[in-house]
Amino acid sequence: MGAKDLLVDCSFNQILTDSLFICEEKIKRLVIILHIEEFGNIQIKARPVEISQVIVNLISNSIDALEHQDEKWIKIAAVYNESLLELVITDSGHGIPDAIAAKIMEPFFTTKEVNKGTGLGLSISKGIIEAHGGRIFIDQQCPNTRFIIQIPKFRLENIS
Fold first, then answer.
1. What's the CA gap between 54 and 61, in Å, rounded?
2. Does the pLDDT at position 34 exceed 70?
3. Rounded to 5, what percent of the chain is helix, strand, coil?
4. CATH topology for the 8-159 domain
5. 135 CB contacts (<8 Å, ≥6 apart)?
6. Can you give the residue ranges of every domain in the chain?
7. Taking the C-alpha atoms of 96, 101, 107 and 110 in order, what is their torsion angle to the nearest 10 degrees?
């Protein structure tokens, strides 16, 4: 799939469920508490595999960052209104220093050990979200590590 593939109507909830399934074993193995805030069924126009790739990348980065910490949790929330879906992924990490945050979405930039990362995950994620007309950024005001994804609602509705 690429940026020229058509966006399709899909369930954001299913995308999130599929993404979490991919990360489930590692979350369990490292005893990370996963908290997902309740939100209604959300339908979006997107390329679901690509959105899942972004979510898996962010959660995998959180898992890697929390591996040697005492407090291990990841919180996922989705906020939506008439014009925007906002996905917020926060972990118990201590945030990202400004100098690193300024470069973290650049291709081949990594803070991981040798042979642990390519430095492409966030760069690719940024490209995917931008191809969906959105943006991804770090919330530097949060005392923990928090990434926010904003995707415009091409067609987004709350189905109860």
1. 11
2. yes
3. 30, 30, 40
4. Heat Shock Protein 90 (3.30.565)
5. 129, 149, 150
6. 8-159
7. -30
